[in-house]
Amino acid sequence: MPVTPDPDAPDPAHDVEQRRREAGVDHRFPFGRPGEPLGRAHPFVFGFTAALGVITAWLLVQAASNAKSVIVMIVVAMFLAVGLNPAVERLRRFGLPRSAAVAAVFLVVILFFAGFVASLVQPVSEQVTELRKNIPEYVEQLQENKTLANWDKRYGLLDRAEETVKGEDFQKSLTDIATGIGKVAVSGVFQTVTILILTLYFMSSLPQIKTFFYKLAPRSRRARVALLGDEILDRIGGYVAGQFTIAFIAGTISYIFLAVLGVKYALALALIVAVTDLIPLIGATIGAVVVCLVAFLTGDVTDLIVCAIFYLIYQQVENYVVYPRVMKRTVDVQPAVTIVAALVGGALLGVVGALLAIPTAAAISLLIREIVVPRQETM
């Protein structure tokens, strides 16, 4: 037992032996026996806890704002790991160990990214080469344009343009733009590689991560927490699998349609449609606009009209036939909640927020239905 302090004894802050005697040090408690905890109503406990809470909240807000990009990458990687976990579990049913199943699924993801990038290299390089070849022709057409010639006589457009191009501000602007594009490209590559590496680690250790967080719950409620947690993860995984399925269908149908129509870069455009289709609400429209624009630039007005009609019809089929059939067993969320969640998520975190919003809304609705509503019924 700790010794009652003697007023005449040496101060334990300066005397080591007195410190050990008063603390009651022995072989079981090398740093002394813990004293009786102060009551929660004690003024010191209340004030200290309140001050500590305010400081902690302020530090967390500052840390979150400074590390926003890192937090987003971790959340996206965890989201992808949970979403790809059903594929890993399905491979494990065929007798594969988890490490081999994770490697197989991750290899498919890497091949998809590599194929997407490779499919874009050819059309981009061809367009840049064609632009270089046609620059003299474009300049000649501008010089022969009567309207432009009249404007040049009135306002001296060519002289002003030449002065602007030769000016230091214009050269500096070009340098800044090139530097900015380079920084964005390097940052994008770094973030993509980081997310893929984190996804691999999370996929490999997902069972251990789940077990760790489940053990944080009280023992008496751990089973229910684990069941709810598994259901939430299953819904997230089902949502991701459903989104990939819908995107795959959109990309496949787009490739067949564009190949039959004879549009250039059909494979690259189909992959763009598949990737943009992952974005809730506006993704399919973005992909359709890109395809229609490329079809018009590489073809004629007829190709533009045909593509516009095709994607207008396909989006209706996807929204009212494909999406409900794929998602009805995974995400149990009302359509209005889905739209609001996607809008709020997009406003907070952009495209990433829109992607994460719907499964997050599904998880929150499950917790409300299973925890909040039953508790309200008993009050």
From TrEMBL:
Location in the cell reads: Cell membrane
Q: Name one GO biological process term.
A: transmembrane transport
A GO term from the CC aspect: plasma membrane
Keywords noted in UniProt: Cell membrane, Membrane, Transmembrane, Transmembrane helix, Transport
User: Which InterPro entries does the entry mention?
Assistant: AI-2E-like
Keyword Transport present in the record's keywords: the answer is yes
Its membrane topology: Multi-pass membrane protein
Presence of the UniProt keyword Disulfide bond in the record: no
TM segments?
43-64, 70-88, 100-121, 184-203, 244-275, 281-314, 335-368
Instruction: Name where it mostly resides.
Output: membrane
Classification via PANTHER family? PERMEASE PERM-RELATED, TRANSMEMBRANE PROTEIN
Q: Which Pfam families match?
A: AI-2E_transport (PF01594)
Kindly provide the name given to this protein in its UniProt entry. AI-2E family transporter
What protein family does this chain belong to? Answer: Belongs to the autoinducer-2 exporter (AI-2E) (TC 2.A.86) family.
Recorded source organism is Actinomadura soli
Basic and acidic residues bias located where?
Answer: 11-21
Q: Where is this region: Disordered?
A: 1-21
